[in-house]
Amino acid sequence: MTKALVTGGAGFIGSHVVDELVRRGREVVVYDNFSSGSRKHLEGAAASGRVSIVEGDILDLACLGQAMKGVSIVFHLAANADVRGGPSNTWIDLEQNVVGTHRVLEAMRTAGAGEIVFTSSATVYGEPELFPTPETYAALQTSVYGASKLAAEAYIQAYCEYFNMRSYTFRFVSWIGERYSHGVVFDFVNKLRQNPEELEILGDGNQRKSYLHVEDGIRGIFLAIERLRERKNVINLGHEEHMNVKRLASIVCEEMGLGSTAYKFTGGERGWLGDSPFVHLDISKIKSVGFRPQIGIEQGIRRTVRYLLENTWLLESRGAKT
Ligand SMILES: NC(=O)c1ccc[n+]([C@@H]2O[C@H](COP(=O)([O-])OP(=O)(O)OC[C@H]3O[C@@H](n4cnc5c(N)ncnc54)[C@H](O)[C@@H]3O)[C@@H](O)[C@H]2O)c1
Question: CA 120 to CA 149: how far, in whole Å?
Fold first, then answer.
């Protein structure tokens, strides 16, 4: 069986992709610079003897080219995954998410790797006016993170056209679950461990979002790859449910055994510049290949909180980042 390469394979989602590939008997190259990923996430998969780990940066074309030898499919997850930092650093998304993706495509072209799976985001829809938002929605951009993901999608599509590649671009809602290391649940658990009396909530707490548990997400990715055969596939991967941030905060507090935490809101409809007050994707396309989320949002949040409390090393190593 041919080899798969996973950029960002030591990260939250990437390490679950690696586990699934190993479970399916594939040989896997993990390509990661360990800027936010962890070797701990790979311990189980590495024990299979079918995983090789390359510590390298996606911007390093020579190193990437070397790692790409004999690879037929690339799962490209390495990115700047920080959705909030755009206004303070307007370059990093362009460098990591656009130039980085271009480097991955170039290495694939040279090595003859024909399939790419790309992790895009619901942020490419900016602040949509249509809910649930379908893949065909023509959006205006509201963040450089979203803009960089959309630009990377466009490069991937052009490479498919020129070089006979196939692509699976997944537009994700927020993922939660085991190995989760950034985002609102992480942020809340982190803050509440420091001060259980008061929780600062970005925005007015009425922002509504969908959250997808990593177990469901991984199943969705592999179902789509098996069953969708267009040359360029763009697929929303989300949940039929959504939840507002206040409700999410109350579940986190409950799961942490806190009964009297006061909420302090920073105010406004959005948590940060470029945040969308409502994220709810139309998932009819992925449902047409048999996908149904099995884990409700509330259950997923509770599992994530328990995981973080049992793995405080993750909170401590990434405490400053959300
Ligand atoms: N987590 C979510 O809710 C979510 C939602 C939408 C899209 N995504 C996308 O999914 C992908 C994975 O996200 P995640 O949540 O697992 O993030 P993560 O930070 O846990 O994983 C990213 C991984 O990429 C590695 N990496 C970063 N820059 C690199 C570089 N220049 N070269 C090599 N490796 C590099 C990091 O060390 C890390 O292991 C990202 O592309 C992200 O934009 C995530």
Answer: 6
Instruction: Identify each DSSP E strand in 8-137 by its residue range.
Output: 27-32, 51-55, 71-76, 115-121
Whose tokens are 């950029």? That residue is 7
Q: Residue 93's pLDDT is what? A: 97
Instruction: Record the pTM.
Output: 0.97
- Separation of alpha carbons 46 and 257, rounded Å: 36
Domains of the chain and any CATH numbers: 3-175+211-237 (3.40.50.720), 176-210+241-277+296-317 (3.90.25.10)
Least Cα distance to 304 among 208, 203, 187, 153 occurs for: 187
Cα of 97 vs centre of ligand 1, distance in Å, is 10
Query: Which ligand 1 atom is at minimum distance from the Cα of 37?
Result: 39
Question: What is the C-alpha separation between 258 and 66, in angstroms, rounded?
Answer: 51
Summarised one tens digit per residue, pLDDT across range 197-232 is 999 999 999 999 999 999 999 999 999 999 999 999
CA dist 170 and 153 (Å) reads: 10
Q: 218 CB under 6 A from ligand 1?
A: no
| Cα distance between residue 322 and residue 289, in whole Å | 33
Q: Is the CB of 81 under 6 A from ligand 1?
A: yes
Cβ 180 under 6 angstroms from ligand 1: no
Residue type (1 letter), 253: C
